Amino acid sequence: MPSPAFSLGDAKLRPRVYAVLRRALAREEAGPLAAHFATMLEDMPIGLLLIDWDLRTIWYNGEAANGCAVWNHGERKAAALNPRRNFRVPAALLTACAELKAQWEESRIKNQGFASRPVIVSDHALGLHAQIVLRAIGQNTQRRPAFGIQLDYRRPRGDRNRPLSPGAVAVLGRLSPREREVAMGVREGLPTRRIAAELRRSPLTIKTQLSTIYAKLGVGGRTQVAALLNR
Question: What does pTM read for this prediction?
Fold first, then answer.
């Protein structure tokens, strides 16, 4: 049986993860360690974006760059752009961050506690969903928080409103961005020609990518891929 899915947000797991990170930070230089973390986060199949208090971009990974390009320009035009060279945070996300910022400042003026709940911003037509969280920096109440954004881009198909489990996210993390798109089509049960039409690739290309997906995941066919992504 597959191991149970877990999330870094799980209450039991979080203290252990933080303890490991603290030990690592204590014995490693910050620069090389930050590079290791950036490389690891670059492989995540979910867009990750960090924005500072003044709504300036601090860091983002490749998936976030791709998602923002589609959000700003549409799928067809974004496909012809270099997403990192043309990176810009979508206006809808900046507006949501500004509203969170105003709520935080109002709570400080009234000397009230601020309970930060995730804010969801979506463009259903494009299959784009962003979760924004106002994140404090440790226990330091004097330093202003930053905005952590998770950006989930799925092409507008029936699966876009079905959440991915942590286990499915881990599976997608083993594939390239283009292979993930094919795998998501398989997740929904689309035939090869339909996936090819939606992704604007040839059926032969899709078949080749499917073979690579099977090899990377150690499975024998579509049914097993779908099972991994729907668990």
Answer: 0.57
